[in-house]
Amino acid sequence: MKLLWRYVSQHKKFLFGALGLATVNQFFSLLDPQMMRLLIDRYATKAGEIEFSDFITGVVFLLFLYVSFAFISRTAKAFQDYFANVITQRVGAQLYADSVDHSFSLPFGVFEDERSGELLQKLEKARTDNQLFIASAINVVFLTSIGALFVIAYAFWVHWSIGLSYLLLFPVLATTIYFLSRKIKEKQKQIVAEQADMAGSTTETLRNVELVKSLGLETQEVSRLNAVNEKILKLELQKVRMVRTLSFIQGTAINFIRSLLTLLMFYLIFQQAMTLGEFFTLFVYSFFVFGPLWELGSVITQYQDAKAANEQLEAVFARPAEPKPKNPHTVGQLTSITLNGVAFSYQHANQPAVSGVNLEITGGQTVAFVGPSGSGKSTIIKLLVGLYKPTAGELRYNGIDCHQIDFEKFRKRIGLVAQETQLFAGTIRENLLFVNPRASDKDCLNVLHQAAADSILQRAKAGLDTKIGEGGLKLSGGERQRLAIARALLRNPELIIFDEATSSLDSITEKSITETIRQVEKSRPNLITILVAHRLSTINHAEKIYVLEKGKIIETGNHAQLVTKGGLYAALWRQQTASEDKPPISR
């Protein structure tokens, strides 16, 4: 729980305020039975031995103190709850914010290996469980500890045997509870792991709901998710049985201890070593001490929940952030990108994804990467935007090595249009401003026009405020791509990448989008444009085309040169043009 303490300790003012007020609250609450002891011993048992005026005066005075102490206790309780809530909310919010911040600082490879739903569930659970435990630690554990110390001290003052009984019996109860709670911890760790898996699976299913419903896989997916849910249910029920067993043993032990103490106190009354008022006070105090102990089972469960959640969160924090140079170099206006003998290998891969890559791209140039699936095109793109770092060779921007560049800042100068457009469930404006929050409506309309996306606004009743649905579901495939192009242009990039931007579109829409891309290239003469495609008709205008196969560049040139050369590019071109020219089959 070091992680939790690290955050709680940052709010010491509120923590000490809450604990101080909790002490005041408990102290004055414990004074109430003392007033009753005095009323019993001084007045109730001696009603015929004192004057009526002295009787009334004494009783009224003690009742006044009783009411005053209760008022002070309630006032302290109100402020204690406020301070405790401030701590729980601030710690929860800060813990979540730092977790999200660290998650985004992790290397891209981490997200390739872990489902986003699992990570989100870990962050949310850590926040909720820690908030519950902090509240219980202040309102139950600390208050009970203060009460126990006060009661034991008073018990020794009344008679040494009562105080000694408390000291001997408390450790026995605490030890029993500790050993029983260890099994709950192990069960909770299993539950947390399964819940993370459940969150990941559910997120994936909901994200692909169109595919699930289109193929009639609802029953299959519900059954798959229910199988995980049933596993979690079984673990939760096992945990419930453990908690109930703990509560039963705890409750039985508390009742037995109270009965022993009551028997001892009656014996002392019989021996005239204790007054009736002292007996009443200690009997009431037993509720102050043993009452919260009934909740100890819930507190232990919350502690184990928080501990298990924090262990998973600590594993996230333990992952090293994406390395950044201590003294990063500033890349001016991007005029060149150079790769010299660049290679990259995925973890656990038998061979490199790309190797021996040599190329140079200059400002204002349009280049393209083509090749079969798995040839290394996407890997090179991820290298160029800094998501991967070369395992061999050099990658330079304006002659500056990639390891000397702060990519978090550099990427703000890159525009990306991918095959999956990755739009958000908001308005057109919100999707555009995602990459440039300071852009005006005029800027948004301008890039929509450049991307030939005017048709989207023409049929949108609310204009830029039109909601497009999750992932742009309310738009056609071509409209989604045009909106993605407009979004990429809004940041006024120096490097724009079209990664299979038209591969999922029909031929007519593809030609329209390709023409839009060419217009963008012409309108921005200093822009470096990188195209990745399977369909060669979308990139045949590029000034330089790199043909990849098995992670290596095997051909370089423009369209005419490569067709004349008669290599892989020429074969792909003949194959695609032949299929396009082939007449339809009559039926």
CATH superfamily placement of the largest domain: ABC transporter type 1, transmembrane domain
Total count of helical runs of at least 4 residues: 19
Number of domains: 2
Secondary structure: number of strands: 10
Gyration radius, rounded: 36 Å
Which word captures the global form? elongated
CATH top level assignment of the largest domain: Mainly Alpha
Largest sheet: 6 strands, mixed
Low-confidence parts lasting 5 or more residues at pLDDT below 50?
A: 583-587
Q: What fold name goes in the CATH topology slot of the largest domain?
A: ABC transporter transmembrane region fold
Strand order within the widest beta sheet: 6-7-8-3-9-10
* Whole-number mean pLDDT: 82
Topology as a string of helices (H) and strands (E):
HHHHHHHHHHEEEHEEHEHHHHEHEEEHH
Tell me roughly what share of residues is in helical segments: 55-70%
CATH architect. name of the largest domain: Up-down Bundle
- Classification by helices and strands: alpha/beta
End-to-end gap: 72 Å
Strand content: 5-15%
